[in-house]
């Protein structure tokens, strides 16, 4: 497992960064790490929101084609199981995108967008209630606190 997903806490936000060069594919190792970190963020009472992003290589190129028709393709968590784990998160779930999102990577993005419209969740600034559509969001300074937030582009 040379490259997978990094976990970083910035104030009350857990940032999960997919780092699997060259295109951040969702290999079995990446799926397992992402699912574990989603659960970690969900269980941490100090985390108020979760951001999934990609490294400088882009958001995600989708499923790992080298795993097609191999046992690793069906290794748990599968892509549908990972999507279900995303859907179970009760905290705001934001996809911060730079570059591309293809296939299963696009599914991760769309579930984060769907999660932001869930009645129990919202996206944006936790301090000033600034809400935006995550796919069009960009980082900016919060009007109320010194923490970063997302605002509509």
Describe what this molecule looks like in 3D.
It is a single chain. The chain starts with a strand and ends with a strand. It has one domain (5-152): 2-enoyl-CoA Hydratase, Chain A, domain 1. It is of the alpha/beta class and 153 residues long. 34% of the residues are buried. The protein has 3 helices and 6 strands, in the order E-E-H-E-H-E-H-E-E.
In short:
With 153 residues, this protein is of the alpha/beta class. It has helices spanning 28-43, 79-88, 103-116; strands at 5-10, 13-18, 49-54, 93-96, 137-141, 148-152.
Secondary structure elements and pairings:
Blueprint: E1 5-10, E2 13-18, H1 28-43, E3 49-54, H2 79-88, E4 93-96, H3 103-116, E5 137-141, E6 148-152
Parallel strand pairs: 2-3, 3-4
Antiparallel strand pairs: 1-2, 5-6
Helix pairs in contact: 1-2, 2-3
């Amino acid at each position: 497992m040379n490259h997978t997903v990094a976990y970083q806490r910035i104030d009350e936000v857990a940032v999960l960064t997919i780092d699997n060069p060259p295109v951040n594919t969702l290999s079995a190792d990446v799926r397992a790490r992402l699912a574990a970190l989603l659960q970690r963020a969900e269980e941490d009472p100090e985390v108020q929101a979760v951001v999934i992003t990609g490294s400088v290589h882009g958001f995600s190129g989708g499923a790992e084609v080298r795993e097609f028709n191999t046992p690793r393709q069906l290794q748990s968590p599968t892509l549908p199981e990972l999507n279900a784990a995303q859907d179970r998160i009760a905290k705001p779930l934001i996809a911060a995108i730079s570059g591309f999102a293809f296939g299963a990577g696009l599914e991760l993005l769309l579930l984060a967008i769907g999660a932001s419209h869930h009645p129990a969740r919202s996206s944006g600034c936790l301090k000033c209630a600034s809400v935006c559509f995550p796919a069009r969001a960009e980082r900016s300074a919060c009007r109320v606190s010194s923490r970063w937030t997302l605002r509509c582009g």
